[in-house]
Amino acid sequence: MTERPTAIEAPEPGAFEDMLRIVEEMDTPVGYKAELIRGKIVVSPWSKLRYKKVMKSLRLQLEPHAPEGHDVDVAPFLFTFPGSGRGFGPDLHVADETVFDADGRHADGAALSLVAELTSDSTKDVDWLDKLDTYGRVVPVYLLLDMNVQEISAFWDPSPKGYRSRTNVPFGRPLRVPAPFDFELDTSEFVVLFGEGESEAGNVDEDIQGPA
């Protein structure tokens, strides 16, 4: 990581709740997700089809090691972080199943034990900066799969200033996923080949300005 995440400022009173209400009322197109990032509602596409194999491998490997009562899924749920004024829909989440017993369309980010994000050209900066900073204060483990660089980073030991520990390996080498999972992750199936001249620039985010 070449740039340190910037500090997150608290939103104005009521602004976060207003934006959450707008997200819940939005008619988001199929295949897209809405997140709350830096005071805006950002609509972006879910991962590419070719990433399904990667997410499936990751999910199947995590499931036997998840904390008791925690569910591993790639379903499009919004997890909120009120103290930071953020709401994210991670590509993969591991969360306490009881959080899904509540009404509404968003879950408390404090229920997460792990999140994983697969980068694209349009989301890479958010994954490496805003999400890293936010998850690093609450979520025990963050797995960041940089699909262009073809490597995976594990962050753990959250604190009020962000994660205290990090390790990374190229795809194809095993990665130790720290507690509460504590196992060797096989990344040999994570390599995604791109055609000549192909890029991910087609994934363009659409910003929808929320309340001031």
Task: Provide an overview of this structure.
17% of the residues lie in helices and 31% in strands. The protein has three helices and 14 strands. Helix 3 links the parallel strand 8 and strand 9.
From the spread of the alpha carbons, the general shape counts as: globular
Structural class: alpha+beta
Helix coverage percent: 10-25%
Spatial separation of the terminal alpha carbons: 31 Å
Runs in which pLDDT lies below 50 for 5 or more consecutive residues are 1-11, 195-212
Radius of gyration: 16 Å
Strand content: 25-35%
Strand segment tally? 14
Largest sheet: 6 strands, mixed
Number of helices: 3
Q: Overall mean pLDDT score?
A: 83
User: What is the string of SSEs from the N terminus onward?
Assistant: HEEHEEEEEEHEEEEEE
Strand order of the largest sheet: 3-6-8-9-10-11
List keywords for this structure.
212 residues, alpha+beta, six-stranded mixed sheet, 3 helices, 14 strands, disordered N terminus, disordered C terminus
Q: Topology of this protein?
A:
Elements: H1 15-25, E1 32-37, E2 40-45, H2 52-62, E3 70-73, E4 78-81, E5 86-88, E6 92-96, E7 106-108, E8 112-118, H3 124-138, E9 141-146, E10 151-156, E11 165-170, E12 175-177, E13 183-185, E14 206-209
